[in-house]
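Replying to the earlier thread about multi-chain prediction with a worked example.

Input:
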Amino acid sequence: MATLLQAEALATAFEIGLVDCLISRGPAASDALAERLTATPRGMVFLLDILTESGVVVRSEGKYMLSREFMAVLPYRELMELKLALANLAARDILGGFTDLVMRPEQFMRGSSFHRLFSYDRCFGNDESDRHVTSRWMRITTLLTRYESAACMAHHDFSRYRRILDVGGNSGEFALRLCRCYPDMRAVVFDLPLVCELGRAHVDGTPERDRISFMKGDVRTDELPTGHDLIIFKSMLHDWPDEAALRFIHKAARSLLPGGRILIFEREKIAGVKQPFPFSILPFLIFFHSYRPAETYVGFLEQAGFVDIDIRSVNLDLPFVLITGQLP
Ligand SMILES: C[S@@+](CC[C@H](N)C(=O)[O-])C[C@H]1O[C@@H](n2cnc3c(N)ncnc32)[C@H](O)[C@@H]1O
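Result:
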């Protein structure tokens, strides 16, 4: 998914059933694939050439098959397909809007259909259209979090916590992953009203449902619930200006149990990039103005009275910072 053409070729390979066909029927010649999938012979050669160049397929004795490397990542098909769709959407905003993105980010965001997907203002109502709009972007955040939370869990020991609060915890996906891994853990997800309703439905069918509760609120105006030994802010604070982010962290400090911890998991400020950005990270680059350096979060935690601050870097599509701090 490094370039536009490679990404689009892979999306097409999924869409027309080429990947499924190679899985179910094994290696095949280009002409045979064209016939089976009702492509033109030239179109199929073109597609297979790009897929060969990007390492999705290999050619042997005139027949094409999925490469070993691609088979190894195929279990993440759902994530790949999501990233391809998001990159396609983000590319439309960037084509023609790049100067605004660099020079006038607020203007860019106003015109960005990708940014408009995440309309938090629709999360206070509950009519059919609000539910439709909100569940559409929640599917995106849920799927990304399914994988991002695994990386976070690999870099921090959550076994010591019993009662966690995930602020802006969305569908409860992170809470679900944590509760599944730690049977003694209970979680509260604090989020906007409609997000909580849809989140409840998301976890309801799982064995962990009784250990996860949702609290409807607005972190701008409401205090956070008390009694937790861990408060998480994952991919949430970057949505807010410094003053608001600091205020939310102060709220967390007020509501945590003594000795409790805060954990921030966020994409890090982009600077000094050594390799070209792959096409697939366009959706995350759109928000590059909002990502902060780790030191900014450390400063916020210190101001709110946290000690024993720990910083880690976790390299996903872009580097994430994982910062924890403890109340005295
Ligand atoms: C970018 S999403 C991140 C969601 C989730 N933490 C994740 O990593 O997938 C930001 C979350 O903050 C929530 N949010 C936005 N404004 C909020 C507010 N004023 N109070 C509480 N939650 C809010 C959104 O509904 C959304 O779930």
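The mean pLDDT is 96.

Feel free to reuse this layout for your own posts.
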